[in-house]
Amino acid sequence: MENSLSALSPTVAEKAQRLIELLKSFGSCVVAFSGGLDSTVVAKAAQVALGEKALAVTGVSPSLAARELDECRKLAELIGIRHIVIETEELSNPAYQRNLGDRCYHCKSELFGKLGDWAARFGMAVVVDGSNKDDHSDHRPGLKAAREKNVRSPLAECDFTKGEIRELAKYWGLPVWNKPASPCLSSRIAYGEEVTPERLMMIERAESFLREHGFATLRVRYHRGDLARIEVPLEDLPRLVESPLRQTLTQKFAEIGFKFVTVDLNGFRSGSLNNLLPAESLEILSRRTGDVFAAVETDE
Description:
The active site is at residue 184. It is an enzyme of class 6 (ligase). Keywords: Ligase. Its EC number is 6.3.5.2. The protein has 300 residues and is an alpha/beta fold. It folds into two domains: 10-171, Rossmann fold; 185-269, GMP Synthetase, Chain A, domain 3 (2-Layer Sandwich). The protein is 47% helix and 11% strand. It is built from 13 helices and seven strands. The protein has helices at 10-26, 37-50, 66-79, 94-98, 103-122, 133-136, 141-148, 154-157, 162-171, 197-212, 237-241, 245-256, 279-289, and strands spanning 29-32, 54-60, 82-87, 127-128, 219-223, 227-231, 260-263. The strands form two sheets. The protein has a four-stranded parallel sheet with strand order 3-2-1-4, with helices on both faces. A three-stranded mixed sheet has the order 5-6-7, with helices on one face. Helix 2 (37-50) crosses helix 9 and helix 10 (197-212) runs antiparallel to helix 12. The protein is globular.
């Protein structure tokens, strides 16, 4: 049977069974579906537990790369879960545009609000997300938004760690089982620099160019003055700066709109822009919201 869990390690099998039973207890649910590892596992579990009473919903805005949306559609088809795409409007929120340490809070608040509306429209009992036990050991902006919107987190409630989620995803044959974090395009813009559709498009086009030239793990960071900072794994640095790719790259990035192109000699680091966020900014946000934000990249 598809939901037979005997081949899993005992701990993961027990948690997976709890996960399925928890989702069954909801009666129906809307899954916040980003196509990342965590939300894909929740979507699969929801389909196993609830069948047609589960609905995966992907929020789309200029901050979502087109290839990520394509992957969401393919994954939903593979899982067999009903899937719809909705538009979110976080970029119309001045607090989101300002791009301070609470940007992710405003994004998730917009998303979960829209998902709540769709849950009511489809008669679904609850909205669920993909946050897990490891996420809940830290203070994250999206978690505060989830609490405010009464979103449930089945993976966290069943004590799943990231490694256990990967094991379950691999067992279920989900191709994202080893997918690295893939945060939204806005996470590439240095804190304090305004998030605009134009800048997001520049980043998406620049990263697409690098992928077309064989770079799988990468980030193109946007800094003040239309400066691009490219991050790739250290082993890929020589190939990045060799001719003729270097000339082609700088010409392409100039066409895209970047005035300066730099390469980070530290290599790829998820969340490297957090180094630019001063501690006093987090203290101010904490006083404003009563919570502490950690401006970290996540795949959900």
